[in-house]
């Protein structure tokens, strides 16, 4: 069995160099049911002791940290599972490219939201609807208008 050199107390590892599910969950601030769910999804593969209890070694610690980092990057568990199953660069790119595009889209939306909010903060008018920045953003959203004031339908 793997020995952990990560400063575990003997009360955590029972002298085996591994962690139980409660200790691993506490180490990362997770509920134990999260680790069980990740196991059912095939993301974790803990060993078992003689009593059938899950035992997590150094590789499992790394795997949990990896899952958390990827989740923080916005990847879902299914995507993380696909990444862990892929071995080639082409497969990895195929999995990550859509995630990157989605993230770019969310960043653009957040930037637009920040621009609107900062425009409202920097507006010297009492009525924010009179601010040039506000009017520009609304005009962009409304789009061009016909002479009769009707929205112009795009032609393709």
UniProtKB/TrEMBL annotation:
Keyword Protease: no
Keyword Protein transport found: no
Pfam families the UniProt entry points to: MerR_1 (PF13411)
UniProt KW keywords: DNA-binding, Repressor, Transcription, Transcription regulation
CDD domains: HTH_MerR-like
Domain HTH merR-type: 18-86
Cross-referenced SUPFAM superfamilies: Putative DNA-binding domain
InterPro entries for this protein: DNA-bd_dom_put_sf (IPR009061), MerR-type_HTH_dom (IPR000551), MerR_fam (IPR047057)
Name of the protein this chain belongs to: MerR family transcriptional regulator
Native organism: Streptomyces hyderabadensis
């Amino acid at each position: 069995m793997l020995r952990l050199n990560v400063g575990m107390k003997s009360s955590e590892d029972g002298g085996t160099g591994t962690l139980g599910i409660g200790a691993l969950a506490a180490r990362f601030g997770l509920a134990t049911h999260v680790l069980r769910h990740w196991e059912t999804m095939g993301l974790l593969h803990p060993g078992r002791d003689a009593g059938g209890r899950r035992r997590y070694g150094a590789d499992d610690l790394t795997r949990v940290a990896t899952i958390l980092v990827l989740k923080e990057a916005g990847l879902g568990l299914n995507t993380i599972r696909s990444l862990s199953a892929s071995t080639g660069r082409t497969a990895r790119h195929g999995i990550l490219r859509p995630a990157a595009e989605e993230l770019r889209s969310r960043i653009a939306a957040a930037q637009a939201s920040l621009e609107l909010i900062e425009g409202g903060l920097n507006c010297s008018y009492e009525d924010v609807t009179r601010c040039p920045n506000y009017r520009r953003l609304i005009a962009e959203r409304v789009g061009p208008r016909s002479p009769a004031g009707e929205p112009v339908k795009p032609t393709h």
